[in-house]
Amino acid sequence: MKKLQTSSQKISSIQKIFFVVISVAVINLIANYFGEDVAVIVGNLMYIPAAGSLLVVSIIVLQRLGSSGKHGSALIALVGFAISWFFAEMTWMLQELYFKIEPFPSTADLFYLVGYPFLLMFVISYLEILKEGITKEILGLAILAAVIVLVSSLYVVFNEEEELSNYEFALLAGYPIADAIVLVPAVLGVVLFFKGKVNFMWTLVFVGVISLYVADTTFLYTQLEDSYYTGHPLEMLFHFMYFLIAFGIYDYMKIFKKE
Q1: What distance in Å separates the CA atoms of residue 183 and residue 176, rounded to the nearest whole number?
Q2: CA separation for the pair 112, 85 (Å, rounded)
Q3: In whole angstroms, what is the distance from residue 60 CA to residue 160 CA?
Q4: Is residue 230 a contact partner of residue 103, using CB atoms and an 8 Å limit?
Q5: Number of structural domains the chain divides into
């Protein structure tokens, strides 16, 4: 049976979100103040609680709500995404901090790319219960936004003067394509929030996906400019993504409890 959150619970949840977001930003900025070497260490270690929180929450929600019914496929896909990207982050961290090798491109990218289909399945399934509120106009707007950002990103990749290996080129072109695909349902979710069709906590999942898109896009530009490093101030957008989706899906569990 659905149980609505009280106003005090909503306020408490929002306060926790802002506390986490501000804490992540402060930690990142302090680390960068002490230099790039410190930022690289802190930026990598931050993925343990960030990616770990999403992994733990997704497994808990799946256990409590179950894998059957209309929500089951969404939760299974979320767990698949969380596992894949947790392994990706840990692989990246080990390569950079322990083995002292360049983490991009690397085997971590394979885990990232494997996670995208799971993320897409999750977001679409998550959005399915709101499909009655999606009009052709809203869908067209979301697709247009995704196409515009995709074309701009691919333009940068194809016009890169530095010689790239086939693998590097495929990755730098593949991420924008994957991001653009998952961006469509994410934009739909945010638009539905402003139309009053979905509550703020649910919208965090979609905002988290958009944060991922922005983070990946800035990664693309800074990587091509050779100015990117793990722990860069823009890195906090990746951390935000994990925490926002974790908060959103935890709220999902509280609303759709098993009877």
Answers
A1: 10
A2: 6
A3: 44
A4: yes
A5: 1
Whole-angstrom distance, CA of residue 48 vs CA of residue 82? 12
Q: Kindly report, residue by residue over 217-237, the tens digit of the pLDDT.
A: 898 888 888 889 999 999 999
Does residue 23 lie in a domain region?
yes
Is the confidence at residue 8, as pLDDT, over 70?
Answer: no
What's the chain's Rg over C-alpha atoms? 18
| 1 within some domain | no
Task: Answer yes or no: is 2 within a domain.
Answer: no
Separation CA 129–CA 113 (nearest Å): 27
Q: What is the pLDDT of residue 258?
A: 45
Question: What is the per-residue pLDDT across 180-218, written as a single tens digit (0 to 9) for each?
Answer: 999 999 999 888 888 777 777 778 999 999 999 999 989
Residues 6+ apart with CB under 8 A from 99: none
CB atoms within 10 A of CB 150: 18
Evaluated on CA atoms 199, 68, 121, 60, the torsion sign reads positive
Residue 22 domain flag: yes
For residue range 27-75, list pLDDT tens digits in order. Answer: 999 999 999 999 999 999 999 999 999 999 999 999 988 888 767 888 9
Residue 105: cis peptide before it, omega within 30 degrees of 0: yes
Q: Report long-range pairs for 61-69 (Cβ below 8 Å, ≥24 apart).
A: 61/249, 61/250, 61/252, 61/253, 64/253, 64/257, 64/258, 65/253, 65/256, 65/257, 65/258, 66/258
The boundaries of the domain holding residue 70 are 7-255
Q: How far apart, in whole angstroms, are the C-alpha atoms of residue 29 and residue 19?
A: 15
